[in-house]
Write a structure and sequence with these properties.
Length: 262
């Protein structure tokens, strides 16, 4: 696996010290995602679990449209080494619709925020039915239990985590990335490749805020709950309510806010 962190020399200053020493920082590089060799987007991501990221993005953004993933590989037009492992092609044998390419780079901060209206999303996705009703004390316990899946954050303090958890609040799958939306896509991509979607019976923890995009990705994957350590946006709340997803924000220690259901 390619290194996801680098050592840099920094100056550490405090009231009682001023020293130069190495520090560990996260790697951020562009990755081009292709569907049946058609360009879809370029996203800034932390290298690692690239196949999961590509598959998860295409799935949650609706590009697969139910088509099966036949193969995933690094650039099909040149060697992976020549393209520095920064181009991933997802192949469906031409069964997926030809995508419309995103003309701007998907940044690590906001992904494709606002690129899809809520009404259009509702046309594509049906409300989630049959999801378990997570006990509030279980949801409150998730952030502390999720700390074990955040090794990159512990090392650098510069990444987000997305963690799938079961009805008891136990983590079952964790991914980290400089982009919070990428971390979610990596979780969704792994579940899809393992044949475990829709994610009925599972909830999704995110280490940052709950944006519209995070909730729509959770909806697309079938998660019954989203737990965030920070606040949701108004559109995220409306999306969760229309999706039938339990949405929790400010989940810290012994308190949290439940924004959905209403």
């Amino acid at each position: 696996m390619r290194s996801r962190t680098e050592k840099v020399l920094v100056r550490r200053w405090a009231s009682d010290r001023d020293e130069r020493e190495p520090d560990e920082v996260i790697v951020e590089e562009p990755m081009e995602i292709r569907l049946d060799d058609h360009l879809v987007t370029t996203t800034m991501r932390t290298p690692g679990h690239d196949y999961e990221l590509a598959v998860g993005f295409l799935y949650t953004d609706g590009h697969l449209a139910g088509a099966p993933v036949i193969q995933v590989r690094y650039c099909a037009t040149a060697s992976a080494v020549d393209t520095e492992f920064n181009i991933v092609t997802v192949e469906t044998g031409g069964r997926a619709p030809v995508p419309v390419a995103r003309l701007t780079t998907t940044t690590s901060s906001c992904g494709l925020c606002g690129s899809v209206s809520l009404d259009a999303l509702c046309d594509r996705l049906a409300p989630i039915e049959g999801a378990p009703l997570f006990a509030l004390d279980v949801l409150a316990s998730v952030p502390e239990r999720a700390e074990v899946g955040q090794d990159l954050f512990a090392a650098t303090g510069a990444v987000h985590a997305a963690i799938a958890f079961d009805e008891h609040g136990a983590p079952v799958l964790a991914r980290e990335d400089v982009g919070r939306h990428n971390a979610v896509d990596k979780v969704v991509g792994r579940l899809l490749l393992d044949g475990q979607l829709p994610a009925s019976g599972l909830g999704l923890f995110v280490s940052g805020r709950a944006s519209f995009e995070i909730v729509q990705k959770a909806w697309a994957a079938g998660f019954g709950a989203v737990v965030a350590v920070s606040a949701p946006t108004a559109l995220a709340v409306e999306t969760a309510r229309r999706a039938g997803i339990t949405l929790v924000g400010f989940a810290r220690g012994d308190h949290m806010n439940v924004y959905a259901p209403a």
